[in-house]
Design goal:
heterodimer; A: 300 residues; 73% helix; B: mainly alpha; 3 domains
């Protein structure tokens, strides 16, 4: 069964499909913001399959094995994340681990991106890699506190059985933590204003600059899957899992709301510099997250 | 049973005889003698598993004894010992071989005794070996002195503590029926501080980073990175396990020091430019996790703390071995001078990367499992505490979780600076280190993965036996075999996509329309300058680099201030001393006259 969960549902195939669609929603909405038509719903699928047929150019100076393995590390981490989370959300079963595992798997995705960029030996990729890891530091502190709010609300448990059956959003601390969580997800997805590792106009793609062909396709697939699972993670973490048809409908609506907020924030904000981002997360958002967590401890 | 009684004494006598024989031969003979001795120690350690508990005296009155808990520490000390002896096969300095095997004898001695005097002797001798290793390098004479003084402080504290508590042959720390009185609390605090000094926790950690930077690399991975951690945390765990009731406030203070140690040390590691010093700060930071886990006082946290101790010894010694390999390949461990070694030394890179991912707590490595247990332990402690303590435990949990992210960032910088990016003058012609060094590193890296996946089979049952408690996962869930299945399937699928559609062309890269050259190179040393220069961290970093937070520096300054006026009284002139004698005589006379 593990193979089915991992490769079909709720793992690879399901998440990849939903991710491509979520990404299309992002592209379509962004196009509307810019008074463009935007791509058809299947554009991301076409892009991915097209990349599979292209040549992969590997820089002569690169650490070739790590350059090729790093996208697979990030890909496997995202599939594992999707399988663990999806099993808890859609099948109500625990596979492999709990919330702590998900936190670490999300860090492993950043690690894969960092290693791949660093292995390419390109100067822009190196700058992108350093930004990727600093962004992880910036958002992780806030994200840890955000995740701890539902943990506290569920009666101090890291298990999905407890956390996903609690609706933290119904409390003030839950609302506060959810809003802060949105900022963290924005950073984890490297969406504007936190698209620093790729920063097309500054770094010409940064961490992905040297990637092409099938390896770039795997990066894009990984990114698409992230686009589905991170907003899903945040929405079920705070909304819980609804019961019955109305509950599931509300879950879907809450997920779409989360996704749309992320897309709106992306389209109305310019990119910030890395020092401003660090300051914003550590000095502004962290104290707020701490207040939310203390409030949650006192039942607020 | 009786056939095994004297085996405990042999665990000390045999390595000491080996040390004696080593000193009478040359390094080529000594290295193999040590490998044979360490193999013997490891084999005996495994055999002893079936005969616990053991004592040298038939009625249990002997100096040496072994219970399930000390056995756990002993076994891992000797597993590491064998790996160290393999690494040292290429070490041409005879004294390192002698010191190493003596260290093994003393560490085994400390772990196999419940007698306070014997423990103190072995504990002190292990500290002395640290000094002897360090003074063998001219660069490390200053840090050798500092190490000796801090070790001396820890020894003195232990002597005071055992004196205050009284001691018996049955239990190292002794038992208390009820709540401890003020003297007992003082003694317990001294023991905690002694274990902190040995393992390297705040505030007595300051000898470790410099030691790791300056002392021979062989001594860095043998003692501060591994065996000292096992000894220090062994003592702390004995205290928490054996001593009846530890007041909650004391447990919270110890846990707080643990959490604080994690953060301050890793923040310092983040800005280091020397690989060995960076690893030295991480050697301190990881102690914080062990202390935090044990201080939670609940079985999950204690199991996590103990597991983290052995896990840390494995990956940390592996990391130092990798740094040693880099030093022998490129001739330096200064990060600014390194880069691009992944292509030239792929095995060292693989070993370093696995150990780096382990220390960062990445899933499927041993570091993840022990950290996962510690987080649960803290969460349980939080749930069971009153509100004041609840908030403190919440801070500790945040610090521990965030410390892990900082560790990851620091190790990504290290791996980038040494192995990735572009090659430098020092690294362009580098080759792999010698085979024994690679084998030892890969043994450690494999252990990281082996324990990370199969921890429920080994060493969890060993820890459960030593505590007499089983692990109950009430607040967390982890199945590493399922996770291995999920990750393997994903990796295989990803690899299949890659292999099926792979059309690779290796070609020169271009930057700004020009062929990429070594001029377009970024060193990893500046990765975290944004954090280094951030307010108010800049002030703290500046202070730390000047030694403002080093307790040893303040102790030295304080002692100097006390001694300076006394020096004025010791001019060395007879007439001056005569005046003092006369004054003393007058004072005594006046006292006697008044008394009369």
């Amino acid at each position: 069964m593990i193979a089915v969960y991992t490769l079909l549902f709720p793992g690879l195939v399901f998440t990849a499909f939903c991710g491509m669609i979520a990404w299309w929603i992002e592209r379509k909405l962004s196009a509307l913001f810019q008074h463009r038509v935007g791509p058809p719903w299947y554009q991301n699928f076409i892009d991915f399959f097209k990349l599979l047929g292209k040549e992969s150019i590997v820089p002569a100076d690169s650490a070739i094995i790590m350059y090729s393995v790093a996208p697979l590390i990030a890909f496997a981490s995202v599939v594992a994340f999707a399988t663990v989370l999806g099993s808890a959300v859609f099948l109500n079963i625990e596979i492999a681990g709990d919330l702590i595992l998900l936190l670490y798997l999300s860090s492993l995705v950043s690690t894969g991106i960092f290693l791949g960029a660093s292995a390419s030996a390109n100067v822009y990729a190196a700058i992108g890699a350093s930004r990727e890891i600093k962004m992880l530091l910036a958002d992780e502190l806030v994200f840890i506190m955000v995740v701890l709010v539902p943990v506290v609300k569920s009666g101090f448990s890291f298990r999905f059985g407890a956390v996903l059956n609690t609706s933290a959003i119904t409390s003030f601390s839950g609302v506060m933590a959810y809003i802060l969580g949105l900022m963290c997800i924005q950073a984890k997805l490297a969406l504007q204003p936190f698209d620093l590792p790729e920063a097309e106009t500054e770094l010409a793609g940064g961490v992905e600059i040297e990637y092409s062909g099938v390896l770039l396709g795997i990066w894009k697939l990984t990114k698409a899957m992230e686009f589905f699972i991170y907003p899903l993670f945040l929405s079920v973490l705070f909304f819980g899992i609804g019961k019955g048809f109305v509950g599931i409908l509300l879950n879907v609506l809450f997920y779409i709301l989360t996704l749309i907020i992320l897309i709106i924030v992306k389209n109305v904000n310019p990119r910030v510099t890395i020092d401003k981002m660090l300051n914003f997360f550590w000095k502004v958002l962290s104290p707020l997250a701490l207040i939310a967590l203390v409030l949650a401890l006192f039942g607020g | 049973m009786e056939a095994f009684v004297n085996v405990l004494s042999f665990m000390i006598i045999i390595p000491l005889i080996a040390a004696l024989m080593d000193s009478g031969t040359n390094w080529k003979v000594a290295r193999w003698l040590n490998v044979i001795t360490c193999s013997y120690l490891l084999v005996v350690s495994f055999i002893l598993w079936g005969y616990l508990p053991l004592a040298t005296g038939l009625s249990g009155e002997g100096i040496f004894s072994l219970d399930e808990f000390s056995y756990f520490a002993l076994l891992f000390a000797n597993i590491l010992g064998l790996a160290f002896s393999i690494y040292l096969l290429k070490s041409e300095k005879l004294k390192f071989h002698v010191y190493f095997i003596m260290t093994m004898a003393f560490v085994n001695g400390a772990l196999m005794t419940q007698n306070a005097v014997a423990f103190l002797v072995f504990w002190g001798l292990a500290g002395l070996m640290l000094y002897l290793f360090a003074i063998s390098s001219k660069l490390a004479s200053g840090v050798a002195k500092k190490t000796l003084i801090i070790s001396g402080i820890s020894d003195s504290l232990l002597i005071f503590a055992f004196f205050l508590l009284g001691y018996s042959n049955e239990a190292l720390i002794g038992f208390s029926g009820g709540s401890p009185n003020a003297w007992e609390i003082t003694a317990l605090s001294f023991i905690v501080l002694a274990s902190f000094a040995k393992a390297g926790a705040f505030p007595l950690h300051t000898w470790i980073p410099k030691y790791c930077e300056k002392a021979p690399i062989e001594s860095a991975f043998i003692l501060p990175a591994s065996l000292d951690k096992i000894l220090g945390i062994y003592l702390l765990a004995r205290l928490f396990l054996e001593y009846g009731i530890i007041p909650q406030w004391l447990r919270v203070i110890v846990a707080g020091i643990g959490a604080f140690t994690i953060i301050i040390a890793v923040m310092m590691a983040l800005i280091q430019h020397n690989a060995r010093k960076l690893l030295g700060y991480h050697a301190v930071s990881q102690v914080g996790y062990m202390v935090l886990g044990i201080a939670t006082g609940n079985p999950v946290g204690i199991i996590g703390g103990l597991l983290h101790t052995v896990n840390n010894s494995i990956y940390k010694s592996g990391l130092f071995m990798a740094a040693g390999n880099v030093e022998s390949s490129a001739g330096t461990v200064e990060l600014a001078e390194l880069g691009g070694l992944a292509r030239r030394t792929p095995l060292t890179f693989s070993g370093m990367l696995v150990c780096s991912l382990s220390i960062s707590g990445m899933p499927l490595t041993n570091g993840f499992v022990s950290k996962w247990l510690i987080y649960q332990g803290v969460l349980i402690a939080m749930a069971q505490s009153l509100y004041g303590y609840k908030i403190l435990y919440m801070f500790f949990l945040i610090m521990a979780l965030f410390g892990s992210a900082l560790t990851l960032a620091s190790f990504m910088k290290l791996n980038f600076s040494i192995f990735l990016g572009k090659a430098t003058e020092k690294t362009k012609d580098a080759r792999e280190a010698s085979l024994p060094k690679l084998i030892a590193l890969l043994i450690n890296a494999s252990l990281c993965l082996f324990i990370g996946i199969g921890w429920k089979f080994f060493p969890l049952p060993l820890i459960e036996n030593s505590l007499g408690k089983n692990l109950e996962n009430s607040v967390g869930f982890l199945s590493t075999t399922q996770l291995l299945g999920v990750v393997t399937l994903s990796l295989v699928f990803g690899a299949l996509i890659y292999l099926m559609f792979r059309k690779v062309r290796v070609d020169d890269a271009f930057v700004g329309g020009q062929k990429d050259t070594v001029k377009f190179r970024i060193s990893g040393t500046g990765f975290f300058n944004d954090i280094r220069n951030m307010k108010p961290l800049k002030v703290i970093y500046n202070g730390a680099e000047k030694g403002c937070f080093d307790i040893y520096t303040h102790l030295k300054t304080g002692l100097k201030a006390m001694v300076t006026p006394l020096k004025l009284l010791h001019t060395g002139e007879l007439s001056f001393y005569s005046v003092w004698v006369m004054l003393g005589f007058i004072v005594l006379l006046s006292i006697f006259l008044r008394g009369g």
